Amino acid sequence: MDRDQTEKDDEASGLGRPTLKTLAFMTGLGVTTVSRALKDAPEIGAETRRRVQLVAKQIGYRPNRAGVRLRTGKTNVISLVLNTEREIMSFVSDIIYGVSEVIADTPYHLIVTPYSRSQDPLDPIRYLVETGSADGVIISRTQPNDPRARYMLERGIPFATHGRTDMGLIHPYHDFDNYAFATEAVRHLAGIGRRRLALLAPPVELTYHSHTLNGFTDALSEVGASEIPFNTVSVDHSIEQIRMRTAQLMRRDVRPDGFVSSAAAATLAIVAGIEDAGLKLGRDVDVVSKQSSDLLHLFRRELLVVNENFRLAGAELARSVLGWIGGATPGSLQSLSKPTGVLAYRRPD
Amino acid sequence: MDRDQTEKDDEASGLGRPTLKTLAFMTGLGVTTVSRALKDAPEIGAETRRRVQLVAKQIGYRPNRAGVRLRTGKTNVISLVLNTEREIMSFVSDIIYGVSEVIADTPYHLIVTPYSRSQDPLDPIRYLVETGSADGVIISRTQPNDPRARYMLERGIPFATHGRTDMGLIHPYHDFDNYAFATEAVRHLAGIGRRRLALLAPPVELTYHSHTLNGFTDALSEVGASEIPFNTVSVDHSIEQIRMRTAQLMRRDVRPDGFVSSAAAATLAIVAGIEDAGLKLGRDVDVVSKQSSDLLHLFRRELLVVNENFRLAGAELARSVLGWIGGATPGSLQSLSKPTGVLAYRRPD
DNA sequence: GTGACAATCTGTAACGTTTCAGTATATAGG
DNA sequence: CCTATATACTGAAACGTTACAGATTGTCAC
Question: For a Cys-Cys bond, which of A170, B66, B324, B341 suits A69, CB 3.0-4.6 Å?
Fold first, then answer.
């Protein structure tokens, strides 16, 4: 028995990665005590606690994730679920950095779980939940009646959505105020004399489609301008399609003199379409566009822009998920961000 | 003892997530047998093997990652290490999708490990290696003498670099042929009559800086054109800085009549700077730019573009890392991609 | 001096997996 | 008929962690 003990201690002092056993050996305490001392359990003496924590810091002890996960089921993982074909580029980049920023000084890792056009969006969620691969999930492209949100709510797995749902169910979200964006855009266009406005909207199936559309039509009647229908395309369509449809539209007798565009890349296409039709931006027509990086003004000086900050969205979403995991009530983890970096006012003359 | 047995079996048949114990109970075999049967071990009878695999498939058995990881040390994780401030947006998005594509039907997960300007780039690598958080690592912003590559090579952890090193050490990489890009760009500019060329290069510390520069200067002497130095800025500088420096440069007596730009966003700034100086793209000066998404031609019709496919890069990098993990020799996992979607030839007239 | 009780610490078991060292059975060789 | 060997399977131990149920002190009231 003495031999066994010695042998074990020798192993514990080995030069591999330190474990609780290593710490136990070094401090002369039991593994259990060390474990509890590290998490400030009350039944451990103050001095012991400090001693253990000191040694742990000194030798750079880090809990083994697999051990914790196996024992407790806690993965310390947040999963960001992304559509590999339809997400906006800057969205992917910025939201990842936003999330990273928030989880940087936590034990959490960020895993990216992709799904493609051909898959049911519920697939990756089912996978995550069934395999218990994450403590929290962030989803985008949220729908009014979102099966993913419903599914996770039913299983009680913490998540946050980019965009709101409309199912009468409460869950954390972060959203950009697209209603405000659309109303401000319309008001501004009206302010510079534009009367016939077209909206390049988000895809109908996503919640922010109606937010945007409502803001657009409400402001339209407020300012007494009229809508030129432009709903054969959405921001999800290809650059080429949007460009072509815009050009078609601009060649009609009754054509818009103002556009509201929900995405920067789509705006490039709209402008190209306008110019294809031989018209000039700022003279014949004005365009207000959302953008997430400050590049559109380089593209055409005349463009009017509203900024949506995806990095902030990522940070907020991460905070929400961590909050839920930490026991906060879902209803308190909802946020809406207002349009910023407002339109540079300008008269067409 | 009988009671205990029954109790255990009851647990095994429970409705939680199925484990090897569940399978063992259902098949009437031992846990060991089931484990081996699932991985086609030779000492398991053919029928037993099929039977176990059938049941496993039926009840949707998936090995517990924490269990495997704890026992074997295998994490089934690939980590993509990214600089949160300096990566190109479309790079982040596309490379993630490229990697995802390749690991989609493997047990691997992708985790994103970020680091910021203020940190030593080696920090995240050290963290990953010390905590054994990944089976393989992908890094970008590779330097000729890259401490990260050296570090991982020393510890024997599989990795792949986006871009090459120049340390006489062999490791997997994927790189875009920036030498070819620069030579083709210069040749093309010379072909349309441009004689005084400026290069907006990658940051000096990265390996592809010299690749690009060498291609540029080699082609310059080949076609007998001259260089207008433009090395106070790189593609890493802010849009505003590049724009200002370009404008300054274009107001000089001896100014370039051609630009080669290593990044799309920087190209927007160059064009803005050119126009700030009252000059016209396509008439006074031509610009050849790399781009990763097909948007620059919408920006200015006159822009000449070469495409770099980051999604492909991500896929290649993932293949390389998996290959190395799978036992292939590092030297066989290197690839170079040629410029595609060549310049639309056009005369300035 | 005794019992009660708080304070502090500890061993064992379990999470799910794989590996090691077997065991049991059948087959074949002599 | 006995031994050797191959075939097919199995239990125990271990990876690192935490929870549970003690165990060992010391202190204090009476």
Answer: B66
- Length of chain A counted residue by residue: 349
Q: Which runs of E-coded beta strand occur in chain A?
A: 77-83, 109-115, 136-139, 159-162, 173-176, 196-200, 226-227, 258-261, 286-291, 304-307, 334-337
- Residue partners of A53: CB distance under 8 A and separation at least 6: A37, A38
Put simply, the answer to whether A70 touches B84 (Cβ < 8 Å) is: no
Among candidates B275, B312, B276, B308, which has minimal Cα distance to B289? Answer: B308
pLDDT in tens, B218-235: 999 999 999 999 999 999
Instruction: Provide the pLDDT for residue A271.
Output: 97
Cα A308 from Cα A312, distance rounded (Å): 9
Joined tokens for residue B139 = 């890094």
Pair A104, A163: CB distance under 8 Å: no
Interface of A with B in 45-74 (CB under 8 A): 60, 62, 64-67, 69-70
pLDDT tens per residue across span A4-35: 344 444 444 556 899 999 999 999 999 999 99
Q: Which amino acid is at B267?
A: T
CB contact under 8 A, B104 and A93: no
Cβ contacts of A102 on chain B, cutoff 8 Å: none
With CA atoms as reference, the chain B residue closest to A127 would be B62
Q: What is the pLDDT of residues A315-329, one digit of tens each?
A: 999 999 999 999 999
Cβ count near B155 (within 10 Å): 12
Ordered DSSP codes for B186-200: HHHHHHTT--EEEEE
Size of interface A-B (CB pairs under 8 A): 108
Answer for the pair A331, A265: CB distance below 8 angstroms, yes or no: no
Statement: residue A130 has pLDDT above 70? yes
